[in-house]
Amino acid sequence: MMNEFVAKKLGEVLAFNRVGTDTIARGGAPLLAALGEEKVADINEKFRIHGEEIMRIATDAGVIDITLKKADATETKLKTMRDSYIGDAWDNPTEVLEWSGFFEGAAIVHFALVAGCAQALNHEGLMTLSEEGKNYHYELLEVDESELESKGQDSI
What we know:
The protein is mostly helical. Helices cover 89% and strands 0% of the residues.
C-alpha cells in the first residue's frame, strides 16, 4: 500500500522529468550544439518513458491526485531555481550545463529516496523505475561533467 509520503516523492521525481524536458526545450540550439541531436533526443525519450512510468505507478496505486499536486508544486520550485541560476544566459551552453549539474545531483538523490521507499514496499515496478532513474541521472551528470571539463580546457 502506497502512502502519501511515497505519492509525494513520486510527484517530485515527476517534476524533475518535466523540468528536464522544459530545460532541454529552452536550452535550444546551444544544448544541441553541446550535446548533439542524438543525445538530446535520447534525453527527451528517457524523460518521457520515466514520466509515463511514474504516472502508471501512481495511477495503479490510487495516489495520482497527490502525485500530480506535488509534481506541480515541485516543478514551480525547480523552474524558479533554474531560471534564477541561468537568468538571461540561455544562449550560453556552459551556464545551462552548470545548472544541469545541480539539477542532476538533486534528481539522483530524489530517485534514491524513491528507491528506499520501493524497497520498503517491495514494489518491483517502483524499484526498477527508481534504479533506472537514478542511473540515468548519474549518466547525465557525467555528460555534464565531461562537457564542462572540455569547455574549461577550450577556454584557456
